[in-house]
Protein 1
Amino acid sequence: MFEFAIMLLPVAAASGWYVAFRHYNAKLKKPSNEYEGFFKGINYLLNEQPDKAIDVFIDLLEVDDETIETHLALGTLFRQRGEVEKSIRLHQNLIARPQISLDTRANILNELGLDYMRAGLLDRAENIFLELEKMELHEVNAVRQLLSIFQQEKEWLKAIDYATRLESIEFKKQPLLLSHLHCEAALLYRFEEDADIIKNHLRKALKIDPLCVRVNIISAEIEVAKGEYKQALKLLLKIMDQDRKFVPVFIDLILNCYDRLGQSKQKFDFLSELQESNESTIVVSRFLDVLLEHKGLEEASAFMHKKLRQHPSKSYLKLYAGITRPDKNTELEFLKSIIKQFDNDVQNFQCKQCGFTSVDLNWCCPSCQDWGVIEPIEI
């Protein structure tokens, strides 16, 4: 049923074309002797020969400001169906007509720019929208499209300029977008070792969005690379106040800093406090590991059994039920098996906007293209 409905869409567009065609003929009092051509075009559409149908309809209907909407409707239809080459061809044909007005030409240019974006011809799309942004009626849309293009091209400095400009035009702040664009710009200069520019972008990102976890992650990774583990740890612990959901994601980076600084007690205290308010299996795994090391088998065993009673639905209950105890070291082997199982767990992430899921942390959602909307799923 759905496929049949899709098939009728070109017919509907062609029908609209035909109505405009008749209206045009009536205005000029021409005889309607081109019915044959119209039905020939319909036949091409029904037989999935849209290229030939386009030729027929373009020949049938002269382009002017009264009929342009019908032409554009068919072009949009092709683009939405993924037939971008056909849409490009149609719009290029329209733009070449000398009798169209400047406003009509701008509308066609906009559609052609969208065609190029859909086809991945970003340089051509960029040139079109750079022209359109000079026109007041098309400025906002052109700025939006250029912002999208510069993000796809990873032209982060240009993207920052256009995001800032869009905020001023629409009177709407976009802290998530701008903070992440500044993070991307900082990473752009990371391998050039230009510390001042990097710090400037990260400082701006944090000022725009004080809850941007990514700023502290990037800053900490830079400090780790320099061997400045104390400063890196200070930055990483700020995540606790920004968004605690991300702590398990970067917990090994945090623990590495404690190890490098020789702060085993502080590491133990950190994990002990964290596991009380965070049920992530990764957190439980890391705490169980240090508990065995610092407090011994008895306390580690008591801790794990308490966790099992409190959260019987957790994955470690399944592990517990399946463990056999063949020798006198069964409790130790049991705990080690749990730790090993936890290490095999994969952290998953989900977009809170569109529901996209992934095993990788994407700061920009690959599906809806929004920034800062991906969150860890507790495991």
Protein 2
Amino acid sequence: MHDQSGDWMSPPTSLQRGTGFHHLIADEHRLIAQVLTYCHAAGYAIPPLLVIDYLIAIKTSPFVLLFGPSGQGKTELARLFAQALVLPFDDQYIYVNLGSSLQASEIQDRFGWMKFVETLENAAAPANAGRLFFLCLDNLRPHDIYTYFANVSRDPDGITRLVMRGYPPHKWPALPSNVIITGTLDAEHPVDRDQSSLLAQINCVYMQPQWLQSNIRTVKRQQRMAPVGMQRLLLDQQYRSDEAASDRLQTLLGPHLDDILQPPSELMAVLWQSNLTYTQTWRSTMLRAVANSFTIEGHGLFIPYDVLNNAQFAYSFVMARQLLLRLWGQPQHSAAIEALLHRQLAQLPSTTLVGLTDSLLY
């Protein structure tokens, strides 16, 4: 909404349920619309909520894990999102398939590691400072999480590096800020407790067929080149430190901040029953995820004109999918979490994104 001078006015403090908005918002909503349009033109019907979920994850952390049953479009989501923003510059999307037969596993692992480091070095080149690079590590195995999604440290020169388990410090690669690393993990692979602790530092997107993902259907349309400025928007609008995320949320939520950043009682019950500890590391990840659930203009990505409800929904939604991954294979807990997500989705307002007919509900 604009005033007579053409400047943006502050959004209303509450959202009228069921009321959509159809004007153009020059921020992440345009980026989401670009990705959805590109996906459709490429022949895929991707749910808008899935794109929003993935966008928040990559804004929050350079590491994103797409997990769920095999064949649900994990690889396609990573590829289409990247290509929607970098087409026709295909060198900015790098795909590494880590799945292989047992006989070829050593060669495949070595190739994957070399390609991984090569991508980081290329992105770190001064000429590529303003370009986004998307690296997709497909068909991860649980132990690969340690290799490719390990801890981040800063060396004495202030360079951010990946602490690669099993490699000497002088071989730890630098992690440029313009690299997004996405891994795909089939949910049938068990995740042990050590891996579960590491996953608290990683943003994950849960892709489940019945209620979070629509069927992929094929259409034939022409793809469009990515608009200028989308990569810069994504590079600039990232809150990846606790300080930056806290400042952002303090501005948006003010005195409500502490009340919102508490796990819902239903999820706390799951934590207690499953003997998981809500650590400071996990809370830090949640803080950054909620901060990144807003656009540059302060509109919610889930609920555009309701700041508090958007923050509360983002917190519950992100924490629920974290729990789903860490408790995968424990059906008694998974059922309770999925029931909560069902109720959350049912409470979303029937609003549309940037004039698109795709509803957030499906």
Protein 3
Amino acid sequence: MHRPAKPKPQTPPHLSTGYAVRVSVFFGALFLIYGVYLPYMPLWLKGQGLSVGQIAIITATPYILRDLVTPAVAFYADRTANHRRTIIMLAWIGVAATLALSQTSGFWPILIFAVATSIAMTTTMPLSEVIALHGMKTTGYDYGRVRLWGSLTFVVANVGAAEVIARTGSSSVVWMLAAAFAITLIAAHFLPRADRDMSQSEGTHALSLGMAARLAVTPLFVLFLIAGGTVQAAHATYYTFATLHWTSQGITPLIIGALWALGVIAEVVLFAFSGRVVAWIGIRGLLITAAASAVIRWTAMSVDPPLWALFPLQLLHGMTFGAAHIAAIHFMSQAVPEKLAGTAQALYASVGMGLAMAIATLISGVLYERFAGGAYLGMAGLAALGLIAALAMARLWRGGYVIELHIQKA
């Protein structure tokens, strides 16, 4: 069943700008965490004496657990209209977990607090996207131009953390994470209270678990999860072992930081023009382009290209991550009723990206231990699966809702 989305209401410019600024600030704060965690957490884990296999387990476990945790938290937030309050709670968990991690040693204690840190970070993302998407629908701002501030602060955190690590060593990583979570906690208190607007626009409804389950098994939505999830999960080797692999090749921390930053700069450029890009190529075309770019990028990375070649390959991050993310956000905005927005975001983050990323990360650990950079070829194969799913989704989806809600007022 396909139903077109409702027309956007007109919003006074000052209210639109205020909403966009507050969401932009929050994304900027949140991605300080990502800018430290993604590239440098493996270095901290290695500095604690953990093996490659143990690092892969610690990295993959949160993806497995969030398949249960993230949808449950998001469903609660959808049902009770507490997205903002839930984000604040998760930020507190992140602060506590990182501080505990700074005092921890040994595989099992590190596993426990690293998982709590990762889940607090990754569960926050789909909930913040709900607030951001509501603003896009009601005020008409360009989502990409709001989201790009997160990517910009990722670059700042990435380069800044590289400098700190070069001066003080990898032990500083968890302290930087704790500071980033604290900044995110402050920014969360200034998020718009979008939940009130959503309740008023749709009425007070009793959202049931069965409705969320219906969405999870809708064929078109499943194809979307496979397409978007596998393209993102194909970054597993890059996220987990790129820094370690480049270090083993003699590349300095500052150049490694620059390589990570270049990839994010590419996605920032895409985000800045995302409205025009989506209008030009369409949601389906953007997802197909992302999947095809991922096949090319990871195949090239599997042959250990020379340093000069890494720079143009990093520019493809704008496609492999940025285009896939923009396509996913716009698809969920058009294809899923707003009452299920948080649930859809959580299913994408956990079942789609999470489960696929967990499997890809564990496979990456095995492949990297045996083939080093050759592990990227396995990621190219995963991206190829995503390309097939994206082509199938493009053929079947007509642009409306993938599921209809028949909700009785409470």
